[in-house]
Specification:
Blueprint lengths: L8 E2 L9 H11 L6 H22 L3 E2 L17 E10 L8 H5 L4 H4 L8 E11 L3 H17 L3 E7 L1 H7 L8 H21 L3 E5 L2 H4 L10 H18 L8 E4 L19 H4 L6 E4 L10 H7 L6 E7 L9 H15 L5 E4 L14 H23 L1
Parallel strand pairs: 1-10, 2-5, 5-6, 6-7, 7-8, 8-9, 9-10
Antiparallel strand pairs: 3-4
């Protein structure tokens, strides 16, 4: 990860809204329908170039491909790993509603369809291994071409974590989830290493480490959940053992939906586990109304000296465009905890978690990025004088 000794750098979590024409092709691909593959690849290449150009133009320093080639942050693995297959239905099979939905049942009418239903259900039905490198190679080539043209400060690429995949792509093959998650270590290692060898920062997406507490694993008690989360961190560490910590960052979240979130596990209960993870950078929610206060908890618990904080200072579920002054205030709060050189300004989560979900409009995303850059500039003035 490139850090700065003279200004606050800006970044975001990864996914961005896909262009309409690309979205049509991705949905057909996800459903297993016949598509014009050269047209899909051409459309993806153009979308990546556009996404990188828009990020740089808005003032984002550390950019990515917007996950343009992916229908979602985890189901994309079905096109790369043997052992994963589409099944009947959509979304995550047998997944319960988030616990907060049960407290406010009237919201199910609008939030009950928050994006997973847009994609085919995927399960593990056989031994997992990395089987098809072509999609990854195209992603790397597209991002290299786009960033060579636009020359951002730094570049990252997203990849799913073993814990995330074993949570959101249910196991129907291995004797238990532990065995499935263990198998994913070696199955995902080639993707992680390829991203690193391409010269990109590896971002490993781990929404399960926080979000699964009030959704998939709400039946567990807190001790059981934290023990399981530690196993996922151990799997992540094993799968990334070939990559230096400073070449990686990890993203956690409480799931990217505009709901009550009244059962979210507090970040202060996760900080001890996150400190054990190998990636240097930690991306987390810091802007939305349920988690914006937690900078105080992070201050009180403390952060290891080898970690870099990438708090969300813009919300990824609201079409409000944050005022740059508010963004600067948020950045400064974290800089006062760990030092100005160990903070990057980010977003709470992705803006295109599920391709085609109507959340934050593309023009608003760009406006939020401009505000992010302006707020980072204001924070730089405050912190460096």
């Amino acid at each position: 990860m490139k850090l700065s000794s003279d200004r606050i750098l800006t970044t975001h979590v990864g996914s961005l809204p896909r262009p309409a024409e690309l979205l049509k092709l991705l949905r057909r691909e996800d459903r297993g329908e016949a598509i014009d593959e050269p047209a899909l690849h051409e459309c993806t290449t153009a979308a990546v170039l556009g996404a990188v150009r828009d990020q740089v133009a808005a003032g984002v320093d550390v950019v990515c491909d917007g996950e343009m080639s992916k229908i979602s942050y985890h189901v994309y693995a079905r096109h790369r790993l043997a052992g994963l297959a589409a099944t009947d239905g959509t979304g995550v099979p047998d997944r319960p509603y988030p616990r907060d939905f049960h407290d406010f049942p009237e919201i199910m009418e609008t939030l009950g369809k928050a994006g997973p239903e847009l994609m085919k259900a995927t399960v593990c039905e056989g031994p997992v291994s990395y089987a098809d490198f072509a999609p990854l190679e195209r992603d790397i080539a597209n991002l290299k071409a786009a960033t060579d043209a636009e020359k951002p400060t730094d570049v990252f690429m997203n990849s799913v974590s073993p814990g995330c995949l074993s949570t959101y792509v249910p196991n129907r093959h291995y004797p238990d989830r532990d065995a499935y998650r263990e198998a994913l270590i070696e199955a995902l290692r080639p993707e992680y290493n390829a991203i690193h060898e391409a010269g990109f920062v590896l971002q490993v997406d781990c929404p399960d480490l926080a979000g699964a507490r009030h959704t998939d694993y709400q039946a567990m008690d807190e001790k059981e959940f934290l023990a399981d989360a530690e196993k996922s961190i151990e799997a992540l560490n094993a799968a990334t053992s070939d990559i230096p910590p400073e070449a990686m960052r990890m993203h956690i979240c409480w799931l990217n939906y505009a709901g009550p979130h009244t059962h979210d596990i507090p970040i202060k209960k996760l900080l001890g586990l996150l400190a054990k993870a190998r990636p240097q950078g930690i991306l987390f929610e810091g802007a939305n109304p349920r988690h914006a206060h937690e900078w105080e908890d992070i201050r009180d618990v403390g952060v290891p000296d080898d970690k870099v904080l990438v708090p969300g200072v813009i919300d990824s579920t609201s079409n409000f465009v944050e005022h740059p002054q508010l963004i600067a205030q948020r950045i400064t709060q974290y800089a006062n905890i760990v030092g100005r050189e160990r903070v990057l300004a980010g977003s709470d989560c992705g803006f295109g978690t599920y391709a085609g979900r109507k959340g934050v409009f593309p023009s608003v995303v760009r406006a939020k990025f401009r505000a992010l850059a302006q707020g980072a500039h204001m924070a730089t003035d405050r912190l460096w004088g």
